[in-house]
Write a structure and sequence with these properties.
Helix 3 links the parallel strand 3 and strand 4. Helix 2 packs parallel to helix 3 and helix 11 runs parallel beside helix 12. The protein has a single domain, classed as TIM Barrel (Alpha-Beta Barrel). The two termini are about 15 Å apart. It is globular and about 60 Å long. The protein is of the alpha/beta class. It is built from 15 helices and 13 strands. The protein binds zinc ion. Zinc ion (ZN) binds next to helix 6.
Amino acid sequence: MAVKEGRALWVESQQDGILRGGYGPEDVKQIIDNAKDLGVNMLLWLVKARMADTAPALWYPSEIGLSHEACYDYDSFGDAVKMAHDSGIEVHAYFSVFTEGDIEAETVRGKKAPLVEHPEWAVVDRQGHRSEFVCASHVGYREYLGSILREIMDKYSVDGISIDFIRYPRSPCFCENCKENLKKKFGLTVDQIVDLLAGKGFSLLDPEHLSAALDRAGAVINYYNQNVHEAVEYFHTIVKSYSQDIKLSAGVFPNPRTAPSQVYCDWVGFTEFLDFVCPMVYWYSPDYYRQVIARLQASIREGTKLYPGISALGVPHALAGENINYLTKAPDMAYVARLVDIARDVGVPGIAIFQYGTIFGLEPGAYTGRKWGTPVAGDIQMLYERFTEPAIPAHAD
Ligand SMILES: [Zn+2]
């Protein structure tokens, strides 16, 4: 009798392989075989990239959006779903939602990058610079993503859709849509909003005026959060109207106290739409990891499973050695194994390891790069030992 425990592994090595060239079924089989031997029970397989200057955003042969050219010759995602299912492993199509890959990617098969066709969708900063992020306020972009989700669910028998980058970049947006909305709803100009969000002059205000200024800032922050919230609700409606059996999950910033104000991602607020959630609790010291995941476990609703992320990455955090919350050095296999033990000790229903290539010793590639692709040092045997007991995902019905 198998235990119930989510054991997820993010997989991005296929992007490195496809960009290297000559990617084929034996490469996909290697990933599935390794995942099966390790004892994980679900793969979060990347099908839509974050911003990257390497290629278009999509990594399966889409008829709707712009995919990497090689995906039309060999559909590695299709093989991944089939081979994983033959091995009893779930596959969740993993999307970077509001990022658009290389926005200057060349046209493939007559299709252009969405931000080339719709420059008005881009997040615009206060200087008027457009980014590779799309602003969550654009209903047209939500509908485009909805058509991509439907295409994925039509073509492949996926077990779930996993969304990442479900947020703004670390800045507010002043696209035409946002400027108009913020003016109409709150009577605020771009300069006023920038000052409010920076707390400019707040130290000079008396309590009553400070209170009003904080309420104004709060309304702006809530506006951006609400755009993201509505997008997640829309994806939930699409996925669940397609099939109740397809799970919706998200990778999110780990700190729910700061995510709504820093990147406008109030994910505790949208867990009502999620079957499981993976806060990316990366590079945390073991003590801080324990504290944070215990707090998260107590704060999210019962129907949403918490599978905290574990950074199996061979590079140190920028604050390593100077901030007690972070690991003092690069993670290694002993750290990864210890966090699995802590997660079980706290009683969360599973974990999610980032990522396949770094625990199986692959070198960083053109997509993963040094930060997200450097292997962890140490013996992977420590992980095998923790997953010897068969497990089905905790979200399984
Ligand atoms: Zn905007």
